[in-house]
């Protein structure tokens, strides 16, 4: 495990950027291209209504962002707020919530900026801002679950955090399950189909700082716990990992962990019975509200990576995080007896010095 050097492997993988996709993701928030050097072309002869209703609406977000850089006219057409609102709503149905519509409209460029924040991948390293920066009093969670491109669940929750209690966001209580229309697995093939088909998005939003970040890997980072054979429950784990502290500290890397539980109903279909989010340090300790807000805020202020490959990137980061965590735990267990022995040696030395001083004072005085 030590020779595999997972930390370097993780950083190396994160640095492998797709330049074209990075450019497209950055273009979502770019200013309009300069008019200098432009001239009339064939696109100018096309009526704006045709471009808006028959062309731009057929483009995916990345292509739309790239098209906006072609000319000032296309930038103006692609900046239409309704166009990006529809894209946000179709990608994440939760964004159609009244509270979120109001928050998204306050972003610098409205839904276009929000999409850029929520669609791009948070970079491995968080912002270089200090940990004691002013943090929002709370966050908004926008969660969506799809199965094989079919929307099955959405919810928006506002969370107020406290300084001392562990940071945790619970979307559902077990007593309020949500039907999914997914049949309960009865064999390995159905089980794998559920694992591959369920996609979860968890967007954290700072309504004051007008920033957002998607902290889910979209697809599970590990195989589900096989409780469906005995209890009828399927537990899926999603995660996103980024650096939040100094090298060697417990906050060197932090895991945003999402757990989704699907239970069997009497009708034979799966219900969403529980969805929760928490933050863990390198030793698996759940972080408290104050620390979590600071780390998440730093992540929101940090750089963003390419827009493709989130599922693979999420798994790579999670696997490397687990390896580094095991190394830290092993080293910690090795250091414990060493530290204990060092403490005993120090106490013995102090006691010997005390006895020596006592004898000297007793003999001469």
TrEMBL record:
The F-box domain, residue ranges: 53-89
Gene3D superfamilies: 1.20.1280.50
Cited InterPro entries: AT3G44326-like (IPR045283), F-box-like_dom_sf (IPR036047), F-box_dom (IPR001810)
SUPFAM superfamilies: F-box domain
Keyword terms, alphabetized: Membrane, Transmembrane, Transmembrane helix
Spans traversing the lipid bilayer: 344-364
Family matches, as PANTHER family: F-BOX PROTEIN-RELATED, OS11G0155100 PROTEIN
The name this protein goes by in its record: F-box domain-containing protein
Organism per entry: Citrus clementina
């Amino acid at each position: 495990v030590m020779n595999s050097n997972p930390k370097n492997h993780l950083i190396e993988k994160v640095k492998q950027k797709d330049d074209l996709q990075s450019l497209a993701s950055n273009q979502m928030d770019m200013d309009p291209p300069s008019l200098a050097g432009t001239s009339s072309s064939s696109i100018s002869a096309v009526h704006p209504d045709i471009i808006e209703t028959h062309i731009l609406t057929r483009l995916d977000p990345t292509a739309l962002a790239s098209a906006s850089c072609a000319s000032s006219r296309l930038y103006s057409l692609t900046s239409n707020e309704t166009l990006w609102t529809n894209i946000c709503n179709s990608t994440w149905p939760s964004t159609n919530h009244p509270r979120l519509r109001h928050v998204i409209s306050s972003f610098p460029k409205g839904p276009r900026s929000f999409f850029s924040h929520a669609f791009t991948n948070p970079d491995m390293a968080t912002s270089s801002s200090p940990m004691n920066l002013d943090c929002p009093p709370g966050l908004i969670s926008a969660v969506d679950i799809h199965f094989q491109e079919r929307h099955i669940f959405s919810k928006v929750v506002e969370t107020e955090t406290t300084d001392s209690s562990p940071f945790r966001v619970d979307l559902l209580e077990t007593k309020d399950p949500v039907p999914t229309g997914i049949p309960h697995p009865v064999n390995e093939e159905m089980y794998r189909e559920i694992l591959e088909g369920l996609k979860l998005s968890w967007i954290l939003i700072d309504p004051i700082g007008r920033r957002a970040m998607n902290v889910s890997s979209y697809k599970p980072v590990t195989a589900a716990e096989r409780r469906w054979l005995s209890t009828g429950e399927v537990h899926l784990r999603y995660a996103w990992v980024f650096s939040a502290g100094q090298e060697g500290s417990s906050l060197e890397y932090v895991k945003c962990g999402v757990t989704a539980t699907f239970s069997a109903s009497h009708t034979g279909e799966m219900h969403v019975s529980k969805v929760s989010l928490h933050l863990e340090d390198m030793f698996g300790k759940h972080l408290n509200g104050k620390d979590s807000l600071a780390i998440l805020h730093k992540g929101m202020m940090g750089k963003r990576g390419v827009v493709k490959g989130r599922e693979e990137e999420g798994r790579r980061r999670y696997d490397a995080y687990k390896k580094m965590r095991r190394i830290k735990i092993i080293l910690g267990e090795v250091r414990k007896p060493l530290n204990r022995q060092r403490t005993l040696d120090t106490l013995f030395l102090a006691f010997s010095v005390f006895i020596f001083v006592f004898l000297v004072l007793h003999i001469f005085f």
